[in-house]
Here is the input.
Amino acid sequence: MQNRKDCEALDATDELAVYRTKFHIPEATIYLDGNSLGPLPKGVSARIVRAIDQEWGQDLISSWNKNNWFVLALSAAAKIGTLIGAAGKDIAVGDSISVNLFKVLSAALKLRPDRKIILTDKGNFPSDIYVAERLATYLEQGHTVAIHAPEDIAAHITKDIAVVMLTEIDYRTGNRHDMAAITKAAHAAGALVIWDLAHTAGALPCNVMGINADFAVGCTYKYLNGGPGAPGFLFVHPDHAKTESALVGWWGHKHPFDFTLEFDGMNGARGMQVGTAPILSLTALDEALDVWKTVDMHKVQKKSQKLCQLFIDLAEKKCGKFGLKLSGSRDMSKRGSHVSFHVENGYAVIQSLIAHKIIGDFRAPDMIRFGMAPLYLRYVDIYDAVEKLHMVLDQRLWADPAYNQRLSVT
Ligand SMILES: *Cc1c(COP(=O)(O)O)cnc(C)c1O
Here is the structure.
């Protein structure tokens, strides 16, 4: 399956093809960065305009009750719950992954007071590790963060581990941890598990209750298309309903409008809500999540695997001679929904591709990364993107000095 006609044939029978019409994709652009910022779902603009002009502009403060602002986070939580296998009541929507990780990690450490090690891997997102290390030193109880290679994690799950803290899909290699097996091994050793679902939610089927995950965190601006800086989420297993986070606020109080001086928090995830929800961002997210109502995540994963395989096959065949080297596993079942290659001058290669309307991104030190979001990508897009990648490498278009000036966001 190596020519454009074959790709057209796949698109013609693709059950998910209809979803492309639900997004704004800029003219003549192939968007391979939905793993970093999802595109704009069509319903969102109108809903945001209504929230601004009518709800904020006219209804003002009454909107907290009248327009359901106060429970908007609960609506988004229920929708996210169906995508990650949890009840809406066990999910709190708000804050970033970094902040939510601080909350659930502090709660988890409190549940294992006699253990001092937080186990994670070198492929984890740096911010997750910053949060863990700062919390560990701040507590001054001898906590440490043990960082090993992803493939060595299972061997390091021992009876002195308090918390195993991992991201299912490695943001660079695209490699996938076996969530069920690791969670099981951790529980057998008496440890708790926190999963970061940043590259999972909206990309792969996920069942946090099914695998008995203790805690999870995730963001909504990547595959869930919630918009720039959209609020993240956290999950707390109902068995840990009584856990206490180190970060609390009035939005986690049972009766916030009683304004009592003692914090009397709600159980579980809800008690980890902290301050006022960002209503405009939340409005965009709540609308964006409606796209998923009828989506079968198993079909999404299947198409993602086919898109990844196609991209890898074509890129290796056409661009292998330029030194392109696949990062991560060749086994599609051990991957998430993006493909990265090591390549020389990767930053300039991506800048040059962007100038030709093929949008991917660069991850230091030498990776070009392409997200495969099955709801709006076509097989022909993959074909055309690889043709452009070949052109950039073959004609050394990346050598243009304009493409070699580092911008602050890569
Ligand atoms: C994108 C991403 C984050 C982002 O964290 P924020 O605090 O929401 O900015 C965290 N972890 C992983 C694995 C990510 O890919």
About this structure: The longest strand covers residues 161-167. The chain is about 35% helix and 15% strand. The pocket of pyridoxal-5'-phosphate is lined by residues 96-98, 125, 127-128, 167, 171, 196, 198-199, 219, 232 (CB under 6 Å).
